[in-house]
Amino acid sequence: MESSANVGGYPAGVKMPLGITLLACTALYVVPRPAVLGVFLLTRYR
């Protein structure tokens, strides 16, 4: 049985900073002025 902390292929210690980074990029995308930067960062995230 796989541990729930390792679901998605990322170690448990990386998930929180990765989530915060994704949330910040999404916030940049929502605000009209830096939206281009937000789109770039979100597409580079994958």
Topology:
Layout: H1 12-30, H2 35-45
Shape: elongated
Mean pLDDT across the residues is 79
Oligomer: single chain
Strand content: under 5%
Order of helices and strands: HH
What is the number of strand segments? 0
Q: Which structural class matches the secondary elements? A: mainly alpha
Largest sheet entry: none
Helix content: 55-70%
Tally of helical segments: 2
| Radius of gyration from CA coordinates | 13 Å
Spatial gap, N to C terminus: 27 Å
Unreliable segments of 5+ consecutive residues: none
What do you see in this structure?
The chain has 46 residues and is mostly helical. Helices cover 65% and strands 0% of the residues. It contains 2 helices and no strands. α1 (12-30) runs antiparallel to α2 (35-45). The longest helix is centred in the middle third of the chain and has 19 residues, at 12-30.
